[in-house]
Design brief:
- This protein is an all-alpha fold.
- It has one domain.
- Helix content is about 80%, strand content about 0%.
- The longest helix is centred in the N-terminal third of the chain and has 47 residues.
Length: about 230
């Protein structure tokens, strides 16, 4: 008896993984900058903590809203294209069949085989064939606004907890270097985890995120010095 070869792929994770990586990195960097700035002003620990928590709530909501609106725009575009294909299949089925056959010819099939494949796929699921092979829309890669919004907000909040914890645990007068060190370490960790989930090299992923996060913090510190403001 023949057994089917079952494969698992990571493309199903693309929708939430991108949003989660962005949210986590943004949470780590933005809240680190916020709490360091408030602490540097001479505020007490309670004020720093309150500012950090407010930043987490506002930032998580902002990330969720931004991701939802952005991905929803993609979903709207996909729906519009599918609606257009639906109309064209109803009004010009022969032209759509030829278009599908031409796509397969361009991919290397002979004209006769391409026509045969197009006919069979059209008979099975015409709209699905055009969505996949003409528009590049597949079930695993379709826009999922709510999933992206939730992943981004949750990742932001999770990442933002780290610099706040560093502030609370740092010795008096050492808040800034401790938060910077914890932030860079957290960015390396998040980059490595994201690479692991996505199937990429862990070291390369960690260094990539850590490098750009460190650059962002260095840029913020430079701007602060230019304006004679502690960050």
């Amino acid at each position: 008896m023949r057994r089917w070869h079952i494969e698992t792929h990571r493309t199903d994770r693309v929708g939430w993984l991108r949003a989660a990586v962005l949210g986590a990195n943004d949470g780590i960097i933005s809240i680190a900058g916020l709490v360091v700035g408030v602490a540097a002003s001479g505020a007490d620990a309670r004020t720093v903590l309150g500012s950090g928590i407010a930043g987490i709530v506002a930032g998580a909501m902002s990330m969720a809203a931004g991701e939802y609106v952005s991905v929803q725009s993609q979903a709207d575009t996909e729906r519009a294209d599918i609606a257009k294909e639906t109309r064209e299949l109803a009004e010009e089925p022969d032209a759509e069949l030829q278009e599908l056959a031409h796509i397969y010819t361009q991919r290397g099939l002979t004209p006769d085989l391409a026509k045969q494949v197009a006919q069979q796929l059209t008979a099975h699921d015409a709209l699905g064939a055009h969505a996949r092979d003409e528009l590049g829309i597949t079930e695993s890669l379709r826009a999922r606004p709510l999933q992206a919004a939730l992943a981004s907000a949750a990742a932001f909040a999770t990442g933002a907890v780290l610099p706040i914890a560093a502030v609370q645990l740092a010795p008096a007068g050492r808040i800034e270097p401790v938060v910077v060190a914890v932030t860079v370490a957290a960015l390396l960790l998040s980059g490595g985890l994201a690479a692991r989930v996505g199937g990429a090299g862990i070291v390369r992923g960690a260094l990539r995120v850590g490098f750009w996060g460190a650059m962002a913090m260095a840029a913020a510190a430079l701007i602060g010095r230019l304006f004679d403001v502690q960050v």
